[in-house]
Amino acid sequence: MRILLLGPPGGGKGTQSKLLVEKLNIPQISTGDILREHVKKQTDLGKKASNFMEKGELVPDKLILQMMGKRLLENDCLKGYILDGFPRTIPQAIGLDDLLIDLNQKLNKVIVLEVRDNDIVERMGGRRVHLASGRVYHIKFNPPKIEGMDDITKEKLVIRKDDQKDTVLKRLDIYHSTTKPLIDFYSKRNIVSNIDGSKDINAINENIIRNLTNV
Ligand code: AMP
Hints:
The chain is an alpha/beta fold. The protein has helices at residues 13-24, 31-41, 44-55, 61-71, 90-103, 117-125, 165-179, 181-187, 201-212; strands spanning 2-6, 28-30, 81-84, 109-114, 127-130, 135-138, 192-196.
């Protein structure tokens, strides 16, 4: 099965993808995670992408499509996958269609996680990360055992640059203007399900699974 998770930044796509990976035994393909790896390793792509990412802007379509063209060719994608954070623009969706034609594959389902802007600002504003491991906490919803410290290493937690308030607001703007039109794009194919993303994590997951069983 090939699934696309759409929704605002910080709307729970990553969390839900991870739960689906366990249940469906197919990989999660997160463009954000792949890009962060490139930035960490200082690859050519990482150097080009980091400036856009820090400012909360989208990395150019051409770079994303090149990266995804390679990723979808990997063996683990043969049994299906969960796309998390891609496509994010209409040109990326058209590019994905082209890639899928070449691979003789089709998207089966688009899940839209609906979360209000105010909730997103609260969720992302409280997020703290341990940079070395990537462990993520939330001051209200998932606090570390000791305030400001990673549970395992006791090292300092920080706010990711793209979680800072101005950046979050900018990312939400981009979501509304550039990514949301994808809902219409895919609705014409009758593969879209809207899910209330403000419920608790397990309830959301059950809803998603219920929608996937009809596919
Ligand atoms: P995420 O972890 O999905 O929120 O992505 C973090 C950042 O990576 C985004 O704010 C963008 O700068 C970049 N990014 C991730 N996916 C894409 C994409 N499909 N198109 C453009 N930029 C992306």
